[in-house]
Design goal:
Structural class: mainly alpha
CATH superfamily of the largest domain: MetI-like
Mean pLDDT: 85
CATH class of the largest domain: Mainly Alpha
Distance between the termini: 10 Å
Oligomer: single chain
Number of domains: 3
CATH architecture of the largest domain: Orthogonal Bundle
Low-confidence stretches: none
C-alpha cells in the first residue's frame, strides 16, 4: 500500500510539473505584454517600455524566467512561498490569498448545496424509476448539465438582480402569479410523495390551497418588505422535521422515539423565548455556542427517553433540534431584511457586480443585517454553479442507487419482510453513496478552477478574476498562481480518490 501511495504522489508531482511548464509557455506567448505601451503617446514611452522589460525579465529566455518562478514556488515547502509580483508590482502572494478566499466562499457553498439537493433528487428518482417524477428530474438534469454557464449567469443577473430590485421597490404579486406558484409547488410535492393517483390528487390539492393562502396573505401584509417566520411557522416546520427524521429512521409507530422528539420540540419552544434577547444582536461565537448546547440537550433527551432505541432516539432528537434551531435562526435573519433594505444604496439590495454592497468599514448595521450585506451577493453566482453540479450528482446517484437496489442482498433484505424505508435507507443508500465520494472530490476541484466565467459576469474578485487579469496583461505570475490552486486541487483530489479506492478495494493497488 505504501508503494502505491508513493507511486501516486510521484505521478501527481510529475503531472503538476509538466502542466506548469505548458501553462507558463502558453501564457507568455499568448500576446505581446508591451502592446499597450507601444500604442501609447506618452513622452516617456521608451522609458516605460524599458522599465516593464526589466521588471518582467522579457529579455531573459523563457526557461530562465520559468526557473525563477519555480524557485519561488519551491520555497512553499518551508512555508516561505514567493510567487513573484504582477507587472504593476503587486504582490501575487497577497493577491492569491484574497482571491482564493473569495472563490472558496463561493465554491464551498455551491458544492454543499449541490451535494444535498442532487443526492436527494437522485435517490427519489431511483426509488420512483420510470415515474413522472423520474422523467421530470431526468429531463431537468440533462438541461442543467448542458446549460451554458455564461447564459444562465446573464439571465440570473437580469431577473435575479435588476428586475428583482425594481420589484422590491413596490412588491406585489398578482392572483394569477400566486396561482401558478401554488400549482407548481403542489405538483412538485405530489410527485415527490408519490402514491396512488387519488392520493397524489389529494396531496396536490392540499398543497395548492396552503401555498396559495400563505402567498396571498404574505402579499396582503407586505411580508416581502418585513418578512418573518413567526412562532406558528417555526412550530409547523419543526414538527415536519420531526416527522421526516422518524420516517427516515424507525417510522411513526415507535412511541418512545416520537415522544422524545416531541419533548425536543417543546424545549425548542421554550428556548425561542429564552434566547430572544440574546439573539437580538449576537455574534458568530454565540451562535456556535447555542448550537453546541442545542446538540447536547437533544442528545440527553434522546438518551434518557429512547429506551432500547437510545441511539436512534438521539439521532432523531438531534436532527429535530437542529432543524428547529435553523428555523429560529432564519426567523431572526428575515427580520433583519427590512433594516438592510433601508441601508441598501437606492433601495436596490442585490448588486449586479462585486462581493459587498456596503464596505465593511462603513457598515453600521447589526449582526443580522451584516449577514445580508456579506452574503446577498453570493446568491446568484451560487445558483449558477449549483444548478450545473446538481445535474451530475442526481444522475450519478440515480445510477448507483439503481445498481445497488438490484443486488442480491437487497432482494434478501426484502424477502425477510423489511419495509422499503429500512431497505432503502439502511442497506441500499449507504453502499450507493460510495462512488459519489469520488465525484465530490472531482467536482470541488472543477468548480474551483471552472468558475472563471461566472466570476467574470458577476464581478466576483476571485481566482477567476486573477486568472483573467494575468491573461489580459500577458503576465504569467497571476496565471501560474491560479494554476497552483486549480490544477493542484484537481491533481490532489484525483490522487486522494485513488488512494481512498485502494483502501476500499485492494485489487486497485495492482
Amino acid at each position: 500500500m505504501l508503494q502505491f501511495i508513493l507511486r501516486r504522489i510521484a505521478i501527481s508531482t510529475l503531472i503538476m510539473f509538466l502542466g506548469s511548464v505548458l501553462m507558463y509557455v502558453l501564457t507568455i506567448n499568448s500576446a505581446d505584454p508591451l502592446q499597450d505601451l507601444r500604442e501609447s503617446r506618452a513622452e516617456n514611452r521608451d522609458q516605460l517600455i524599458q522599465a516593464r522589460i526589466d521588471n518582467m525579465g522579457l529579455n531573459d529566455p523563457w526557461w530562465e524566467r520559468y526557473l525563477g518562478w519555480l524557485t519561488g514556488v519551491s520555497k512553499c515547502f518551508v512555508l516561505q512561498c514567493d510567487l513573484g509580483a504582477t507587472r504593476d508590482g503587486a504582490n501575487v502572494n497577497n493577491l492569491l490569498v484574497a482571491s482564493a478566499g473569495a472563490s472558496l466562499r463561493l465554491v464551498t457553498l455551491a458544492t454543499f448545496l449541490a451535494i444535498f439537493i442532487g443526492v436527494a433528487l437522485g435517490v427519489l428518482s431511483a426509488i420512483r424509476q420510470y415515474s413522472g417524477f423520474d422523467y421530470v428530474i431526468t429531463f431537468a438534469a440533462f438541461v442543467f448539465f448542458s446549460l451554458p454557464s455564461f447564459w444562465a449567469a446573464v439571465l440570473l443577473k437580469d431577473f435575479g438582480a435588476i428586475k428583482f430590485n425594481n420589484w422590491i421597490a413596490d412588491p406585489a404579486i398578482s392572483t394569477t402569479a400566486i396561482a401558478v406558484i401554488a400549482a407548481v409547488f403542489a405538483v412538485t410535492v405530489a410527485s415527490v410523495l408519490g402514491g396512488a393517483l387519488r392520493r397524489q390528487l389529494l396531496t396536490a390539492l392540499v398543497a395548492f390551497v396552503v401555498v396559495f393562502g400563505l402567498v396571498f396573505w404574505f402579499d396582503r401584509i407586505d411580508w416581502w418588505l418585513q418578512p418573518a417566520l413567526g412562532l406558528p411557522l417555526i412550530l409547523l416546520g419543526s414538527l415536519l422535521g420531526l416527522a421526516f427524521m422518524l420516517v427516515m429512521t424507525v417510522g411513526l409507530a415507535h412511541r418512545k422515539v416520537m415522544y422524545a422528539g416531541l419533548v425536543t420540540v417543546g424545549l425548542g419552544l421554550v428556548s425561542y423565548f429564552v434566547t430572544g434577547p440574546i439573539l437580538e444582536d449576537p455574534s458568530w461565537l454565540i451562535i456556535i455556542a447555542l448550537t453546541v448546547v442545542t446538540v447536547l440537550v437533544a442528545l440527553a433527551v434522546g438518551w434518557v427517553m429512547g429506551g432500547y432505541e437510545r441511539r436512534v432516539a438521539s439521532i432523531v432528537t438531534v436532527g429535530t433540534a437542529l432543524s428547529m434551531g435553523f428555523l429560529i435562526f432564519m426567523d431572526k435573519l428575515l427580520r433583519g431584511w427590512a433594516g438592510f433594505l433601508d441601508m441598501a444604496p437606492s433601495g436596490r439590495p442585490v448588486g449586479t457586480i462585486g462581493q459587498n454592497r456596503i464596505i465593511p468599514e462603513r457598515f453600521e448595521g447589526d449582526f443580522w443585517e451584516g449577514i445580508f450585506n456579506w452574503g446577498i451577493q453570493l446568491v446568484l453566482p451560487t445558483i449558477v454553479l449549483t444548478l450545473i453540479s446538481i445535474a451530475t450528482y442526481s444522475r450519478y446517484t440515480r445510477g448507483s442507487m439503481l445498481e445497488t437496489i438490484n443486488q442480491d442482498y437487497i432482494r434478501t433484505a426484502r424477502s425477510k419482510g423489511l419495509s422499503d424505508r429500512v431497505v432503502f435507507t439502511k442497506h441500499a443508500l449507504r453502499n450507493a453513496l460510495i462512488p459519489i465520494t469520488t465525484i465530490v472530490a472531482f467536482d470541488f476541484a472543477s468548480l474551483l478552477g471552472g468558475a472563471v466565467i461566472t466570476e467574470t459576469i458577476f464581478g466576483w474578485r476571485g481566482l477567476g478574476a486573477m486568472f483573467r487579469l494575468g491573461l489580459d496583461t500577458v503576465d504569467p505570475n497571476p496565471v501560474m498562481a491560479y494554476y497552483l490552486v486549480a490544477g493542484g486541487a484537481a491533481v490532489l483530489m484525483n490522487m486522494f480518490a485513488d488512494i481512498a479506492y485502494a483502501f476500499l478495494d485492494p485489487r486497485i493497488r495492482r
